[in-house]
Amino acid sequence: MITRLSTMFLRTLREDPADAEVPSHKLLVRAGYVRRAAPGVYTWLPLGLKVLRKVETVVREEMNAMGGQELSFPALLPREPYETTNRWNEYGAELFRLQDRRGVDMLLGPTHEEMFTSVVKDLYSSYKDFPVTLYQIQTKYRDEARPRAGVLRGREFIMKDSYSFDMSDAGLEESYQRHRAAYQRIFDRLGLEYVICAATSGAMGGSASEEFLAVSETGEDTFVRSTEGEYAANVEAVVTQPGVERPIEGQPDAVVHETPDSETIETLVNWANDAGVTVEGRAVMAADTLKCIVVKVTEAGAEPELTGVLVPGDREVDMKRLEASLEPATVELASEEDFAKSDFLVKGYVGPVGLAKNGVRVLADPRVVSGTSWITGADEKNRHVVGLVTGRDFTPDGFIEAAEVKEGDPAPEGLGTLTLARGIEIGHIFQLGRKYTEAFDVQILDENGKRAVPTMGSYGVGVSRLVAALAEQYHDEKGLNWPIEVAPFPVHVVIANKDEIAREAAEKLAADLDAAGIEVLIDDRPKVSPGVKFKDAELLGMPLAAILGRSFSDGVIELRQRGGETLEVPAAEIVERIIALVRN
Ligand code: ATP
Ligand code: MG
User: Where does the Aminoacyl-transfer RNA synthetases class-II family profile domain start and stop, copy by copy (predicted)?
Assistant: First the structure.
């Protein structure tokens, strides 16, 4: 079929949408691929839907090839299964909950572990039926706190989710590796630049877990790579090398000092150096101070609980790392009100001793080990304490990964240092284990006629997000620039010559390409100038544009490769040349 711009349902926009910050969002709206229906909820217009369907096709083909079987669950789900796993509560505000006309609770599925586990329990009972991998490509709902960047982070979005069921841990490992390989094929075929990162498994529980991140400045995830070796990890999953323990014996006593107006780490370090305080004979640095941040942690269904988080003073607390460490509990900084409510919380002078004395849980960075000595708040206005020794003057209730990871930090296993970059999470695979099969009491008869619980893997691809991730990686200042595999049309034929002969030749070219099985978009708009047509062609971003313009009278068709060279092709060779480029 040939698609005509003269009749296609499309309006391109000259202006960026007011709410758009990242290039993919601006361009997908301006080029008429998607349109906002509500915050985080988008309509797919004809061009956008074509890209989405092509991405879906790649995902489906590779999932089928790796042995997955497709099915489709509803998005509208009953409460009970999510009650069984406690996610009805744990999911918190992100879960869309609703009631039917009888007042029965329902939800819009954010992910479907519960449904897959139940259906396997219902239908299978013998080890002979395993392993099995099931998947769907389906609409998910999450009331995201910060929907962002159009379809990149929607409240309604399309995910491929699959689940493997195995009778043994070795089987799970194999299913996991097969998914990993399938994901590599999917993202390779789509032409994405991506990194496979070690990940935390978050609300899902479970152990081994990796994320696929499309490399992009505008991504919300930060990942690290080591300068030597293969190590790559989401910053949320970076494990801090513990500090070196020191003997406590012989360390000088902690001394409280007057430190007027030293509420920041910088002013505190300046005070210490002006006051002649030294650490092992050298000047005091930010890393010798201990930052004490007060947060509120809320477990599902419980009241918020004050918690102190200790990190070396040369680092900020990274809220995303802190959140990941505490999931499924949620966390926020203590407010002015919280400070006002508790006399012992003195802004700028909070220390671990005062917190512990008042029954507040204190969690420390892994560098805060026994025998380390710190300059920190003395819990009174204008006072700090020097020489506060861990394990002698205070003892944290536990350790926590909350400090920011910095460029140049040591990589694990001595593999050089870490470099930081940003990415968009496009896929996530993890070994879930028996959390869900146990919750649903899935009992399968094994080879010896004994009951056994199968182990699961859970694997997601952000299908609609991939459209945005591709647009992030494939665009320039003029517009989109799709890889052939996902372009709505590989070829855009532009009639840019008033001559009737040019029009006829363009129609024939489109018909010939169509006959060869190549999808064609033809710009046959009668009263639109060549300049506007060229601009639109660049904005829409088909990989090849065949221009029948001025040089057509000399028998030449211009073949513009979006973002690349322009070839002058004799009219007689154009079909052949295009076919070769599309099928290469
Ligand atoms: P994120 O950290 O980006 O919120 P997640 O950890 O919540 O992602 P998963 O629950 O693992 O994501 O979902 C699987 C995949 O679905 C993700 O890798 C991502 O590609 C996609 N995805 C998740 N949330 C959204 C969303 N709000 N909009 C679009 N795609 C999403
Ligand atoms: Mg999320």
Answer: 35-483
